[in-house]
Amino acid sequence: MELNSQLKEKNPTDLLSLEQIDSAWPLLDVLPFPVTVIDINYMVVRANQEAVHEYSHIDQPCYKMSHGYDSPCNENGETCPKLDAQTLKTTISHLHIHQTNSGPQKFKVMAMPMDNGGAMEMHIPLDDVTSLDGVTGLTNRAEGEQGARRLVALMQRLGTPYSVIMLDLDYFKKINDQHGHHVGDIVLRRTAEVMAESIRASDILVRWGGEEFLMILSGAQSEHAAKFTKTLLDAIRHIRIELRDETLSVSASAGIRAVSSEELSHTNFDSALKHADLMLYAAKNAGRDQFMSYESMS
Fold first, then answer.
1. What is the mean pLDDT of residues 242-260?
2. Is domain 141-293 classified as CATH 3.40.1080.10?
3. Could you tell me the residue ranges of all domains in the chain?
4. Which of 198, 195, 192 is CA-nearest to residue 7?
5. Which residue has the higher pLDDT, 19 or 126?
6. Does the global pTM surpass 0.85?
7. 252-259 and 291-293 as β-strands: parallel, antiparallel, unpaired?
8. Active-site residues: which are they?
9. Would you tell me which CATH number, out of the four given (3.30.70.2210, 3.30.450.20, 3.20.20.190, 3.40.50.11740), belongs to the domain 18-125?
């Protein structure tokens, strides 16, 4: 429990303002999933093109639009993303089934609290299994790269810092060679579970390929990214795989590229990813089971 609480320590972020949303709206408006802006009284006051397409009537309370309820979700036995985001003052996500024009659809509803008591919600569909990696259940590279690029573009629009982390399991080929690919798959799944428990609703986690994983931490500056990565590597070291004749332990190496608010205008996703990748290989060349950050090396 203590380990999980350390992993899930929140990085303080400012509440969204209408001005920030206005600035980011050209991007938000064309995202391939519904985005809505909800005021303090639960009224939908703004909706992107996909939300207009998915829902019959936009100019009504969010609970009416998505569920057909006459009162907020929490009064109907469901979680309320807007209410929880405002209560906790942080981005949260809940799984909801919404009534859309194409029928009931399952969404991960990500709510970001606003400074006026409302929230901006992103309704991310969860019914497309082709976007998932078959071994770990994480988002696969094809879908994950698109999501990462969208998140970075949104951070740039909002003027919010972010961090890119590349993580690679140490000596994974040796595990496959000595114990077989079925054991390697178990290691991948256990590692993915630890990583999935560590990130927040506003972050992105992708199986990038082989034994490599990509994370985007929204709002995370270098100090938080380093603390997060240290705690995550500690958690991975605690993984134990019980085999017939031995107990297998796991370690990982990571590289970090934290992009500050001042760097947003001249650092894109590709360059941040390249820097994180360089730091990953620097960590591996330095002996593995550690992380290195671009900021500490530059």
1. 94
2. no
3. 18-125, 141-293
4. 198
5. 19
6. no
7. parallel
8. 211
9. 3.30.450.20
